[in-house]
Amino acid sequence: MGLKGGLHTTGAKWFMIESQRHSYHLVDPSPWPISGSLGALATTVGGVMYMHSFQGGATLLSLG
């Protein structure tokens, strides 16, 4: 049994704590939030363009 860094650890638990840098979970970066927000922006702008009869509004609405 040992006490290091304010954490009481024993045996196999020691390896798990040493391999972690943070006491909280960090997720890997994901491209989906930016992709989703760009799609929502294209849908919104395309919808407004379509409702105001701008050329290309329906296409942008569909792509978004």
UniProtKB/TrEMBL annotation:
Annotated Heme-copper oxidase subunit III family profile domain residues: 20-64
SUPFAM superfamilies: Cytochrome c oxidase subunit III-like
PROSITE patterns: COX3
Protein name listed in UniProt: Cytochrome c oxidase subunit 3
Protein family per UniProt: Belongs to the cytochrome c oxidase subunit 3 family.
Locations listed in the record: Membrane
One example GO MF annotation: cytochrome-c oxidase activity
Principal location: membrane
Gene Ontology cellular component list: membrane; mitochondrion
Topology term for the membrane: Multi-pass membrane protein
GO terms for biological process, alphabetical: mitochondrial electron transport, cytochrome c to oxygen
InterPro entries with a match to the protein in the record: Cyt_c/ubiquinol_Oxase_su3 (IPR024791), Cyt_c_oxidase-like_su3 (IPR000298), Cyt_c_oxidase_su3-like_sf (IPR035973)
Alphabetical keyword list: Membrane, Mitochondrion, Translocase, Transmembrane, Transmembrane helix
Summary of the function given for this chain in its UniProt record: Component of the cytochrome c oxidase, the last enzyme in the mitochondrial electron transport chain which drives oxidative phosphorylation. The respiratory chain contains 3 multisubunit complexes succinate dehydrogenase (complex II, CII), ubiquinol-cytochrome c oxidoreductase (cytochrome b-c1 complex, complex III, CIII) and cytochrome c oxidase (complex IV, CIV), that cooperate to transfer electrons derived from NADH and succinate to molecular oxygen, creating an electrochemical gradient over the inner membrane that drives transmembrane transport and the ATP synthase.
Pfam families, per database record: COX3 (PF00510)
Keyword Phosphoprotein (UniProt): no
Domain of life (superkingdom): Eukaryota
